[in-house]
Amino acid sequence: MVEEVVDRRRVQFEFAKRSFEAFLSERERFLPYLKPQVTPVLYMDLEGIKSRYIELRYHLPQVKVYYAVKANDHPEIIRVLAELGSGFEVASSEELRRVLEMGVSPDRVISSNPVKPMDFIEYAYSKGVDRFAVDSFTEVDKLAKVAKRSRVYVRLVVPNEGSDWPLSKKFGVDVNTALDILEYAREKGLIPYGVTFHVGSQCNNYRNWFIGIRTAAELWSKAKERGLRLQMLNLGGGIPVRYTYEALSVEDIAYYVRGLLQKFFPSMPHELQIEPGRGIVGDQGIMVTRVIGKARRGNENWIYIDTGVFNGLAEALGGIRYAFYLDREGELEEWTIGGVSCDSMDVVARSVPLPEPEVGDYLYILSAGAYTTVYAANFNGFPVPQVVFP
Asked: Does the keyword Lyase apply (predicted)?
C-alpha cells in the first residue's frame, strides 16, 4: 500500500491563492488597484461590510448589533454602519467622539471595557451614554462617583480555548463574584442591568459560547433569587474570519447560539446584544505590500516587506497568522517575512510557503481589515498603510 504524501506547503499556498481569487471574484472593481505606486495600502470593501452587518441581523434578528469600534475606527466604516442602524461599542473618548460625529444617538452606544479612564466615564455620561461594563468593585465606585444612575453589566470569565486571541486572563469574574458586584452596584445607586462575556477574539470553538451562555444563565437565575431583575445579555464578540484556515460561519454560530438561548433562557432577556468587530470588517480588507529585501540567514529564507508589526500588523505578535499571496509560479519554499523597521521583534510571519520572490514584487495580505491600521504607528519613521475604499 502506497501512502499518499500531503504537500503541506502546496496546500497552504493554494489555500491562500484560492482566498485571494475568491476575494477578487466578488470585487472586480478592486482589480485596477492591485499594483499601486505607493505601498503599503489597505483596501477596504464598504459594500462587503454592509453585507456582513445585514447577514448578522438576518441570522440573529432578536440581537442588537454593537460594532466594536476598536477593530477599525475609520470614519467611513462608522458612517456606513451608522446609516444601517448599527449600535457601537466604544472604550475611549476619541472612539465615542467619532461615533457621535456621525449623528449616532447615545442610546445606540455602550462601553464594554471593564476598566475605564475616569475622564472617559465623565465624558460619556455627559453625552448621554449610560451603559457600562464592570468586573470589579473599584469600577463600581468610579461609576457611582461620576455616572450616577448609570446601568452596569458585569463581565463573566469564560474559557477562550480555540480562540486565536484569548482574552480571559485580563478581564472577567466568576458567578459568585459577579453576583456580589451587581448587588454592590445596586447599593451604590447604580442600576444592575445585565451580563456579558467574551469567548475570545477569532473564536472557532462552539464550546466557548456554550459555557458563556450557560454561565450567564446561572448568574441570571441567582440574581433573580436576590431580587436583581436583570434586563440584558451581551454575547460579546469573537465571530471569526478566514485567515490560513476556514472559519465558522455567521450562520452556523447564530444557529448554535439561538439554540443555546432557548435551552438556558426559557424566558428570554428583554434585550440581547452582540458586539462584533473582526467579524464585520476582518475579511473585508486586503493589504498590498512590496518586497524590499531578500536574504538567506542560516537555514532560513528571509524576505522583507515595506510594513511590519509596528506599522499595521501587530496581531502577528499575538498569534494571528495571515494568509499571504504572491503572484508568481515556481517551486515553493518556506520564508520568514520580516518587517520594515530595524527592530528584531519586527517579524510578521514564519514558515510561509511562497514561490521565490524578487525585490519589488507585490505581496498580498488577506483578511487585513481588522486590528491593523488601528494598531499602527509611524515607528522608525515608516508610514502606516493608507486606507482606500475602491
From this structure: yes
